[in-house]
Amino acid sequence: MNKTQPFRISLLLVCIALYSANCASVESPNRLRKEIDLQGHRGARGLKPENTWPAFEEAIKYKMVTLELDTVLTKDKRVVIHHDSDTNPVICQNADGTEINKTSLYELTLAELQSYDCGSKKNPNFPKQIPVPGTKLLSLEEFFERVLATEKKSKEIYEFNIETKFPDDGSAPDSLVKEHTEKLIQIIEKYKVIDRSTIQSFDLRTLSVSKFKNPKIKTSALFVPTYFQGFLMTIGLGNGYRETILSAAKDKKADIISPYFLYVTPKFVNESHNNSMLVIPWTVNTDKEMKRLVSCGVDGIISDYPDLLDSVVRKKP
């Protein structure tokens, strides 16, 4: 997630303090899902290097229902697990410790990307994150191989929420969206995880391609508010924006609507359920907001902190 991050941390704190939609005072609607879907965002971005195997191991450690991850298509047409369509010098470096340049992933092969160390540099936005020096990026195939091997040993089964990422400026042509989504589906089919995979995207063209190629794979429509829209929602004036994204998700026949958490109110959840869509908001990193969303009747929560999500939602003593 995190498409053109709409709020700075300081503003988020103000917005949350102002947010008046207290779901706890309203009767929770019936969920379409029997158990709440706990999802580790980018594996467990708050605890280990994002979108890497150590992060996914952390999500598994805290018994997340779903592993959430991002994917980009490389120059040699491989699906790599990475959030941005450009390399990120803030969290990755060369194997010898020197800085990398910001470069489009469409200009780099999987092998070139896997030469980077994406575990030594601690993300400054996540103070609890523990570096894992020498960590390499994964292809989607490598990810499934490791998860399935883990499942065989533990007898646990996980679900997957896989996002297609494109340039934030909206410049991705239809051909790229189609190629990326189709390759993603081919890999999901190869590893026989169709029934427990979701393809999500801010670029709703992805959902259309997915529904056409394999309608058995669930799709999720992602939405983020602008700065102004987010502010209006904190003061109770954003219902029009909620109606707009509900309509857009319904038009794409999405199985799930996955908005930034400020969108979520009891009415929003009810209307989504009435249109046969699950509600799984992102990225939720405080116990107060987790509790509010649970009381709203959401079907899942995506968090950078699986440890917090586990302790708060499962209500451990």
From TrEMBL:
First and last residue of the signal peptide: 1-24
Domain GP-PDE, first and last residues per copy: 36-313
Stored InterPro entries: GP_PDE_dom, PLC-like_Pdiesterase_TIM-brl
Alphabetized UniProt keyword annotations: Signal
Keyword field contains Transmembrane helix: no
Pfam families documented for this protein: GDPD
Keyword set includes Signal: yes
Superkingdom assignment: Bacteria
Protein name: Glycerophosphodiester phosphodiesterase
Organism: Leptospira vanthielii
